[in-house]
């Protein structure tokens, strides 16, 4: 369900000004979520500074926009990693925003931000996923737990590994492996504990049952973006004969 309303945010309050050797600023990460304490929606933005020589080893700064107050404010909260542009996977769940990120040295982590406490955190991931740079990695939610989708970037017959983290405990286990599959680009999200939506070739969506391994191609309205974010409507043609609206 969406409000179908847009709000244009004011310009950032974070400027490099006359700081020596800093020539520009850019957004490293941005997230949107709900603060259950203040009962307000917030936008968090991490800003990276650099110079014309390609040096970006400067202090990151963070600002928050409160929708009710309609203004930005800066907070002092150290980040735990740098959000990855190679794996643009992000999501929000129960008041926390999640990005795929890496620490200095290249180790992958899940970078988190608590919208109520306004603090960053990190979640370590399985060792064979943490050092991976030749496979695509994305995140999702299954029965309230975080899951990782791990699969090849290229190739036709792909195999998808799905890892699940225990609730409130950083302990991972491989839930299942799907494939090899043909004509599938990447998984999107779990509809429920048994059903997964996957991005297929030619802008199609595949409905996959992880227990029966049955698949069904769903007609959609709209085209997915290259970053895996899409707004579309489709009909699930199964025994329920129900119409569902998804914002992915």
Task: Write a structural description.
It contains 1 helix and 20 strands. Helix content is 2%, strand content 52%. A hairpin with a 4-residue loop joins strand 15 and strand 16 (205-209).
Q: Which residues form runs of ≥5 with pLDDT under 50? A: 225-248
Structural class: mainly beta
- Helix proportion of residues, in percent? under 10%
The profile of the biggest β sheet is: 5 strands, antiparallel
Task: For the record, give the distance between the C-alpha atoms at the N and C termini, rounded to a whole number.
Answer: 11 Å
Percentage of β-strand residues? over 45%
Alpha-carbon Rg, integer: 20 Å
Rounded mean pLDDT is 78
E-strand count: 20
String of helices and strands = EEEEEEEEEHEEEEEEEEEEE
User: What is the count of helical runs?
Assistant: 1
What does the overall shape look like? globular
Key attributes of the depicted protein:
248 residues; 2% helix; 1 helix; mainly beta
Which secondary structure elements does this structure contain, and how are they paired or packed?
Layout: E1 24-35, E2 40-50, E3 61-66, E4 71-75, E5 82-83, E6 90-93, E7 96-102, E8 108-114, E9 119-123, H1 127-130, E10 135-142, E11 145-152, E12 158-165, E13 172-181, E14 184-190, E15 195-200, E16 205-209, E17 215-218, E18 220-221, E19 231-236, E20 242-247
Antiparallel strand pairs: 1-2, 2-3, 3-4, 5-7, 6-7, 7-8, 8-9, 10-11, 11-12, 12-13, 14-15, 15-16, 16-17, 18-19, 19-20
Compact overview of the structure:
By secondary structure, this protein is mainly beta.
């Amino acid at each position: 369900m969406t409000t179908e309303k847009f709000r244009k945010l004011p310009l950032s309050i974070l400027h490099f000004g006359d700081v020596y050797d800093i020539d520009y600023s850019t957004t490293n990460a941005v997230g949107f979520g709900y603060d259950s304490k203040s009962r307000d929606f917030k936008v968090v933005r991490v800003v990276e500074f650099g110079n014309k020589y390609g040096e970006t080893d400067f202090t990151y700064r963070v600002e928050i926009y409160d929708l009710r107050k309609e203004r930005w404010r800066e907070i002092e909260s150290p980040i735990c990693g740098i959000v990855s542009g190679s794996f643009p996977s992000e999501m929000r769940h129960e008041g926390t925003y999640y990005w795929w990120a890496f620490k200095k040295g290249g180790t992958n982590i899940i970078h988190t931000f608590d919208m109520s406490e306004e603090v960053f955190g990190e979640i370590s991931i399985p060792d064979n996923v943490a050092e991976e740079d030749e496979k695509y990695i994305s995140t999702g939610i299954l029965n309230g737990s975080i899951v990782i989708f791990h699969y090849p970037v290229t190739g036709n017959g792909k195999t998808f590994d799905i890892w699940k983290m225990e609730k409130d405990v950083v302990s991972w286990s491989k839930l299942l492996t799907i494939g090899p599959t043909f004509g599938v680009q990447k998984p999107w999200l779990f509809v429920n504990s048994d059903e997964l939506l996957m991005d297929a070739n030619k802008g199609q969506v595949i409905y996959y049952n992880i227990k029966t391994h049955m698949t069904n191609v769903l007609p959609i309205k709209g085209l997915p973006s290259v970053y895996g974010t899409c707004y579309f409507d489709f009909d699930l043609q199964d025994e329920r004969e129900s119409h569902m609206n998804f914002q992915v």
